[in-house]
Amino acid sequence: MAAHPATHPGPARARRGRLPGRARVREALTGYAFILPNLALFAAFMFLPLAWTFVLSTQETSGFGPVENVGLENYRAMFEDPVFWRSLINTVGYAAISVPLSLAGGLGLALLINKKLPGRGIFRSIYFIPTVISAVAAGLVCQWMFEENVGIVNKMITGLGLEAVAWQSSTVGAIVSVTITTQWVGIGLFMVIYLASLQGIPREYYEAAAVDGANAWQQFRHITLPGLRGATFFLVIYGIIGSFQVFDLIFVLTGGGPGDATEVLGTYAYDRAFETRERGYGAAIGVVLYVLLMVVTIIQWQANKRRED
Questions:
Q1: Domain 84-308 is of which CATH architecture?
Q2: Tens digits of per-residue pLDDT, 169-190?
Q3: Where are the domains positioned within the chain?
Q4: Measured distance CA(250)–CA(120) in Å, rounded
Q5: Nearest CA to 87 among 240, 241, 242, 244?
Q6: How many CB atoms lie within 10 A of CB 130?
Q7: Is pTM, for the whole model, over 0.90?
Q8: Residue 208 to residue 200: CA distance in whole angstroms
């Protein structure tokens, strides 16, 4: 007895049934083809150097001549190195100072420029321009400005009848000059991110709060701050990572001095890897810095997730 066509689909119907699956595969392959160049560049300039840094941290080499595998000896020497601990404390202290200042300053500028003020577009550009300037160029400019003998900052201070500040030869002066330079260069980006978030908060919230009798502080506390939570989380992570990775500004402005007063992990790793030519030791410092960044990022991510839940 012949089978009914509905119970035994023919080849043409079977092919039609397989087409959606093939289409999905083609779509996936097309997507991977588009992102493949970016993935290749990311692997070539991120993953491979990172993996090589881990390998190099277990070696003793100057970059020339024989290479000796020393295992974890570089890490043992690092944890017994007082300069490493000083640079680690300086790095954490730098982040603890610069990130809150950038958050507060960026939010303050965003709140001010978000208002309908004459020429606010010009002010936005003025505050944001330092962000796109090369950090090396900004460091050179500020190095000249904070020069103790002929710098414009000390000229202005002495012009007011005050005593000149030892910006480059005192610990406090060097730290303050680095902090001021960092804020000048980076606060514009914080302002722009906060400004975009402020403009994304519906005005109806403020109108309803005003009708209910909420004053400006209550509106800021219960509407503005919760609305900026996502931007703040991003900026905290961005600021901490940037603070831990800081190198060029401090290298140009103070060189880590006076003494080790402004030495951070980035500048110390450079000194050991390229000045004293201890490449393995410098790589080990880089690995420790990477691990610290991962730990801080995970902690912040989990804290933000719990807060949202």
A1: Orthogonal Bundle (1.10)
A2: 888 888 899 999 989 988 999 9
A3: 84-308
A4: 32
A5: 244
A6: 19
A7: no
A8: 16
